Amino acid sequence: VPPPTEVPPTEVPPTEAPTSTPLPPTPTFEPTPENTATNPPAGPGDLLYTTSFDDLDSWYYITAYDDTSGYLAEQRGTSIVLAVPSSDDGIFLYYEGQTWEDVEVAVVVEKLDGTNYVYSELFCRSSGSGEYVFMLDHGGYWQIGKWDFNSNSYEQLAYGGSTVIQAANKVNTMNAICSGPNLIFYINGTEVGRAVDYEFTQGEIGIGIETFDFAFAEVMFSGLAVYHP
Length: 229
Description:
Elements: E1 47-51, E2 59-63, E3 72-76, E4 79-84, E5 90-100, E6 103-114, E7 118-126, E8 130-137, E9 141-148, E10 153-161, E11 171-179, E12 182-187, E13 190-196, E14 203-211, E15 217-227
Antiparallel strand pairs: 1-15, 2-5, 3-4, 4-15, 5-14, 6-11, 6-15, 7-8, 7-14, 8-9, 9-10, 11-12, 12-13
């Protein structure tokens, strides 16, 4: 996106000076209300939020099953480790401190344990209505999808395999962009896929892991950051 063009100020024609200068009014002290400062609108690439997961007060998690034994959401150093005990299982961690419309969510993922048939996931525009999800399969595949919570249904929007994915227990970076109706997925700095959907316009961001045919998975997430796309 090109930088904004600087517009010079409009010249105002000079006016004749008044013959006399009135006294200025006596200033009246008015205290500034708290928390009224406004920030300039975010521009492309601006950092909106980042975390080392050392403070999880604004995060909450959801598990696939009501019995939460065997699940893990544990802060380790400057990372967080998520684990699930079963097949067809999942744990999903959301940041409730802010909702956004257009965002780019970036994170570093490393599978610590389990088979390659596990998805590491990023979420954007998550709300009571639904969410968009970007999945990295540690066997070398990716997916962009949409959950509709009202109908409890999932729709796959884009899917494929990519050689840029570091399979097994290697480190990968994920960047999920939700900008207008455009959903764009980068893995290790390379665009692997995109989709278009108009349904969800704002919501929370999140991370998660999900298993399928095989039980147990453990994945570490580091360096999560949210940018203006």
